[in-house]
Hints:
The structure holds two protein chains of two kinds. Chain A is mainly alpha-helical.
Amino acid sequence: MVAEVPSSSAATVSTRPSGRRPNPRIVQWKRTWYFLRRNTLAMVGLGIIVFLVFVALYALTQPYPWTDLNNYCAYTPGSGNFCAPGEPSVCVYTPGTAAPAPGCYQTPKQFPAFIPPTLTFSPFATGPLPLGSFIANVQNPGSLQFYNLYQGILRGADWSLMLSVSIVGSGAAIGLLVGAISGYFGGLVDEALMRFVDVMLSIPQLLFVLITVAVISQLAIFGDSLATRMGLLIAAFVVVWWPFYARIVRGQVLVTREMKFVEAAKASGASAGRIVRKHIIPNSVYPVFVQMSLDVGSVPLLIGGLIYLGFTTIFPSNTFPEWGTLSALSVNPSVLTSILVNSELNIQVYVPWWMMLFPGLMLFMFAISVNFLSDGLRDALDPRLRR
Amino acid sequence: MRMWIYVIRRLLLLIPVVLGVMTITFILVSGIPASERCLAVIGAPPTHGGSAALQAYYAHCDSKLGLNHPIYTQWAIYMGNTLTFHWGLVGNGSTAASVIPVIAGQPVTTALGWLLPYTIELAIFSLAIILVVAIPLGRLSAVYRNRPIDQASRVMSFSGFAIPTFLLGSLALIGAVLIITNYHWAGCSGPYQEMYGSWPKQGCMLGSSASNNNYPLWLQFGTVSTPTGFPTIDAALHGQWVVAGDTILRMVFPALIIAYGSIALLLRFVRNSMLEVMNLDFIRTARAKGVPEAVVVKRHAGRNSLNVTITVLGLTFAFFIGGFPIIEEVFGLQGVGRALALSVQQPYDLGLIFGTTILFTFIVVFANIIVDVVYAFLDPRVRLG
């Protein structure tokens, strides 16, 4: 069937099957990528995200425990060792005295909270405390509990990315479905669904998450494992999040359904389900991508806020390795109180800057890179803003 | 369509939304186990007396909470009480009551009335900072698109969004103590005392006429200020200008951090709507007929890009009145956000949960309507469509 091909295209060298136009959606993606590539900040953001994904993949290969921050038992030499045999432990001793044994960490007696990272300050050290340690027992501030910051940050890459992507992904999927149905069918269905969305959106977001977490953390009907609690946390966020997407998608669908190709599909006898699936959703999905890339960065920030406000009950162990959690624990009120009280008593204070800096830095990098990317996406997808 | 028909239609649409929100709150709180709710309302169960005492305890709790009615009756009672502003009492044994003792046992409406003005004032300050910075900067970054100033404003606004507010606030407090005051924080003066709490500590009311520098009569317990509840206005009304200035000083850091954290949204909206307007025909006409570029940007494009900005501004303000749980917690401010964060910590405060949810819903819904009406007023296409 060479006769169908116009003679001009036969002369040009083309790798694609001659005579067939490329899929317009792929053309659109290529165009978007072209505009995105010229946006420096968006490319920086994309680079950081790729880097963080590699960190998360690297963390998966490490032998660290997946679920918690590898708590260390702390003991004071001479007072008897209360650590179980084989348990990872550190020993603390008063400054001015000689180190009782190698591997002991010098700590001001009145203020045993912080061990400065000068001892083994190397991210690649494999000792018990490579990147500093810290008391993080919020529920029982009197007891010593150490965690390994390096492992926490590494493992936190997994958890933070996993939680963000699953929360935002599920929320967007539900919102896409509801928004597409509501926008396409209109009428009574639209009225009912959109009033429900209005209701959900009218409840303030943080309050909604707080109450939902408070309620579902009580349910515990599926047992009390970490996986269950993670599932419940994700569910609580999804409940709050999907209405945003539903509203965005509906607005977009109202525009899309008036397009000629939908009319053509209708005329050729496509069913409503097929039109929604094949024509409406793929052509209304771009604003959702922008909003998703924006929201992904705010999930660890929100979780950190919850932990800061005292919602440690959602996690079985308060030393859960997630960036928001690590960041919130590093400035929790008991830490601030000890810094203040001891500084007034003229006791030398180690401000655990490394505990505040590194988790905060990871959070910052993650959130700002997705913001750059989504801003670039918005510019690239919106022809009015492109010029 | 006439303007007032539009307004009435919007108001009618409000009814199902409010009823829906109340129902959802009711369902959520019903999910909290009875034992937890009893703990919040009538205190811990009896430790001795056997099962008979325990039964009496739960019977008392059930009658107090209305749990002995079927669920639909509970719902009806709840709706009736809420719509008549009987929002219940703040529990005596709840976390909120132990942290803010003044509100323990008070009606929820009274407690929220004490706490809300502080949050509103803080919201106004934050919004003022955002407005002053975002609108000129947004216009500049639209005019100088993808040039250094646009990139700089982008980095600035997004970095504010990306730093957790609790971290920034805590760092400000630690910095004030350790760097500025050289490790001393107690006493009545110094950066920390000026930054922590919505009022000076007990015994530190400098400039007040009361003896012993204790709280004066118009400021009971350091929480309830009369007559308006707005701290600065109350202090000024009582002629205590030092205290009035002090209350403003205390809001500087929280307001700056809030503004820094949420400036990105408004800035991006101003920039993008400005970009859209700058591509329209009437801008080209204005340039063609020789209007100076500064006037084109400021008057032709600037005014026409304000429609969207006002929408975002109104919704941001409504969102702000919903409280700043984290910032208020960090800086120890007695606002409504703190009450909300405390109300959902065990032991729960059901009255405060219901009260704050409904209050914020009303605020958000009414703000939506006001914004829509203002938008329709500014842009006739909306109300005709």
